Amino acid sequence: MKCRYFLSLLLVFLFPVTLWAAEIEVDVFQFKVETKDVLEKAAKMYMEEHPGIIVSIQTVGGGDDYGAALRSRFASGNEPTIFNIGGPQDVEDWIDYLEDLSDQPWVELAYRGVLDGVTVDGKIYGMPFNQEGYGFIYNKTIFEKAGIDAGKINSYDALVEALEILEARKGELGLKAPIAFAPKEKWITGLHLSNVAFSQEFGDVLTAYNAKEVDFTYGEEFKLLVDLQAKYAYKPSGLVSSLNAVDYAAQVEGLFSLEQVALMQQGNWVYNSVASMDEELARNIGILPIPLKGVVEDCIPVGIPMYWTINKNVPEEEKAAAKDFLNWLYTSPAGKELIINEFKFIPAIGGYDGLTPSDPLGQDVLKYSEAGKTMSWVFMGYPSGWGEQVLGANIQAYLAGDISWDELEEICKKEWSEARN
Amino acid sequence: MRRSWVSFWLFVGPCLTAFIIVVIIPLLFGIYYSFTNWNGINAEVDFIGLSNYAKLLKDVHFAKSFVFTVKFTLFSVFFINLIGFLLALLVTRGLKISNFLRTIFFMPNLIGGIILGFIWQFIFTGAFGALGEYTGLKFLMGWLSTTQTSFQALLILMIWQLSGYVMVIYIAAIQGIPRELIEAAEIDGAGSWMKVKNIVLPMVRPAFTVSLFLTLSNSFKLYDQNLSLTAGGPARSTEMLAMNIYNTAFSFMKMGEAQAKAVIFLIIVGFFTLSQVYVSKRGEVEM
Amino acid sequence: MTVRKKRFILALIGLVLSALYLFPFYIMIINSFKTRRELFLDTLGLPDTLYFDNFVLAWERLNFPRAFLNSLLISTGSIILIIVFSAMAGWKLERTKTGTSTFIFYFFISAMLIPFQSVMLPLIRLMGKMNFLNMPGLIFMYLGFGSSFSIFLYHGFIKSVPRSLDEAAIIDGCNDWKLFWHIIFPVMKPISVTVAILNATWIWNDYLLPSLVINKEKTHTIPLRVFFFFGEYTKQWNLAMAGLILAIIPVILFYFFSQRHIIRSFVEGSIK
Predict the structure, then answer these.
(1) Which residues are CB-contacts of A51 (< 8 A; sequence separation ≥ 6)?
(2) Which one, of B81, B105, B168, lies nearest residue C14 by Cα?
């Protein structure tokens, strides 16, 4: 009798303890399908080291509906602990949910400028995912065969010269055209390409975010880059307007990976796409600068695609666990190993001595960074939707011959100022 | 009287409850949000009157996508129903392969919109291109890069997918025609065309009402196929209303304006389709 | 022209048309047997070798048996509810000629025009409050969304069922409940099968709603898992197509067998 009483007493005490021990659940809601598996692996490793904490990863499939999915997730009341935001507009929209991360140990390790987009009144609200860079990705083997020295392409004129050589010898090189250009993807033109011009006009992302007007200060030079790609690109029907049917898959996995073109405007994220098509080719590619004629001719844009943020409305211990998990992932030896070799990220914070990206595109981005030949990403500071739905869409209209470049600038200026005033 | 009232709500009640909770209440919230500065995140919103509606009057793209959607709907409703009805006639003739054909014609509905768009993209750019090069027919080249070809491509895709869908509805209706009617007509010496015109057509009127309405609302609300085949391009010229609303909400992040568009959309489309249902219901044969 | 000859020509037309309708499936099937490289190198041609790895990989990555079971549970659950309740409502609404009845009918119909995206966020908020973001909740939502269209189909069908059938039963002393289940519902079998088929294709393939409602990976449906083949940039089409083929075979079989059912029951039903 006594024994039974004691046992049940023990159970009463033990039960909440065991429950409590497994009670802290860090719920990660993230957008990058590409990193789903390795993030789950990281969570598992972390949980083994930290019993009592559960890190569950939820990934939104399909790529581009994260904004909608995140909103509905918050609307449902089932709020995540860790989620992703993109830039200043997201910070403003989500500010009621963002935990101040200024006191975190990784903050002082962060490279200069990488926290600009998530800093408001001196408080830091996001932890950078990684760094990404883009430019003209080129096929080293074809360049060699054509006798072009990629190292000397550091100006607009040099790029034109290379394209001309490729165009002239495309038959013997087995090319359909020198370059693949995909304006169907409005982010390629409206965000990435335009960034080359607007990073010079605005300087940094916060200036762009606060700008009431856009001037197209380097509109002419921007136009040259569009025209140049259109001129030397593979056009499905031979007409410039048919470029509007070329998408990411056709550009990267089709034309470039099948070595039917020698160049494309893309970033280090394409490494896995190319490698899954042709591993040999993936080892022999590099990044050339995107030259803004007469302004900056030997730089590539490098920036932060996404930030991790922590929901400030969850219980304290859950927040603490979430912070600890992110710290572990980006600053512990095991975590760093994962970031470099499994995520294949270019870290945006220091302390990764001895660990370098294993793929040639990541290495090239790092080279530009170390040489200081980078420009910042300002497109996160464009008004919402402006880059793709206004500028990108109007570049399609320009390529189709429906509007002139002057009209394009006119429309885009007007839309920008309407969105900001 | 009292009992029939109870039985009425007993039969209609379950659907109505689910419907009100799942559709109507959220819709009322949506209408409410159209008068506010809601950003899709915070529950507390400010009431800003009609200014979302005032803004969309000036939205050129909304007007453009409205015109495009109407045009697309007219074409697709006509062709889908014509072809679907002909297919239904074909497979109700007692052919040995009828069952096989029905399965084939219906199969397009089994593929989800996103993958469908991808497959057809290959057909329009790859297969058409190859065929164009081979035959020298210029009009087969460069599909999906112009408004015209994107429009036709969308139309072809929708006909391919939905004609089998309405076929199923027409088959059910054709099969439901009493044998005696047809036999009587045959005894009177009516030919195939006469049978179709005088018996089948009037008898399947209810099915026409249903199918017209279905294709009308499906074409108006089209989103998945639009996104995966043309993504609204080139230059947003093939952006249909649902996509325009979606982009307003999640690309431009103007939730209130998007809700206002949805309300306007609902009123206009509701007016057209309900009058269609009303008109065609009046002409149905009652048994 | 003899009947035989006429039938032959019709069958020929049918075969030509079916080739046109099957062409996209041809593309899907041949590409599910290709490597990524081959897929882009020659999308339209036959594969060099039959590369089964896509199917093996898709099976694993989709967690196919589990996802299939989830899809099956959700689809059958929803369809049974939709058929039972909308058949009841459709019949009652057609047979009751009052203002309320007509109003409710049009109320249901007009809801078919509502773009899902415009009720999405408020719906999820409401369902979250009701603790309905799970499988039963999803089935309930499908009943709400599917009933309009299904009632519409039943309503249209009932019209062609003679009222004398109802009246005779009532004279025999049937109450509404008995009348419906013993006499009306069996007569409606063909349209019930149609309703089942049309709802099945939609629910089986639906992505957006379950993606918002189902948060746990172990209750993921097939489309939710297929979307993991679509990344931020790269879409793994060869895997997606293999996965899709695995997913639609059961639906094709279901359709093939159930539509034979429609024909048979029609023949039976027409001897009134």
Answers:
(1) A21
(2) B105
- Cis previous bond, C210, omega within 30: no
By C-alpha distance, the chain B residue nearest C222 is: B112
Is residue B2 a contact partner of residue B234, using CB atoms and an 8 Å limit? Answer: no
Residue with tokens 């190292």: A151
Inter-residue contact C226 to C240 (CB < 8 Å): yes
Q: Kindly determine whether residue A276 and residue C227, on different chains, have CB atoms separated by under 8 Å.
A: no
**Token pair for residue C132?**
């309905």
pLDDT in tens, A241-292: 999 989 898 899 999 999 999 999 999 999 988 998 999 999 999 999 999 9
Report yes or no: B236 at the A interface, CB cutoff 8 Å: yes
Is B114 an interface residue toward C (CB < 8 Å)?
yes
Residue whose C-alpha is closest to residue B37's, from B242, B253, B261, B246:
B253
Quick one: average pLDDT of B153-178?
88
**Structure ipTM:** 0.85
pLDDT of residue B270 exceeding 70, the answer is yes
The pLDDT value recorded for residue B284 is 65
**Residues in chain A whose beta carbon is closer than 8 A to a beta carbon of chain C?**
31-34, 36, 58-64, 68-69, 71-72, 75-78, 248-249, 252-254, 257-258, 269-270, 272-273, 276-278
pTM (2 d.p.): 0.88
CATH architecture of B55-282: Orthogonal Bundle (1.10)
Interface check for C255 against chain A (CB to CB < 8 A): the answer is: no
The closest CB to that of A69, out of C36, C127, C212, belongs to C212
Q: How far apart are CA C245 and CA C240, in angstroms?
A: 9
d(CA B238, CA B240): 6
Q: Could you give the number of structural domains in chain C?
A: 1
The β-bridge relationship of strands A263-267 and A179-180 is parallel
Domain that holds residue C178: 71-234+245-269
pLDDT at residue A2 greater than cutoff 90: no
Work out the average pLDDT over B262-276. 81
The answer to whether residue A7 scores a pLDDT higher than 70 is no
Partner chains of C (3+ C-beta pairs under 8 Å): A, B
pLDDT tens per residue, range C207-255:
888 988 887 888 899 888 888 888 777 778 888 889 888 888 888 888 7
Q: Give start and end residues of each alpha helix (H) in A64-204.
A: 66-75, 88-94, 140-145, 156-168, 170-173, 186, 194-202
Q: Confirm whether C123 is domain-assigned.
A: yes
For the stretch B180-199, pLDDT in tens is 787 888 788 777 777 777 88
Interface contact C40-A32, CB threshold 8 A: no
Give me the CATH number covering residue C137.
1.10.3720.10
Where do the domains of chain A lie, and which CATH numbers do they carry? Answer: 23-130+304-351 (3.40.190.10), 132-303+373-420 (3.40.190.10)
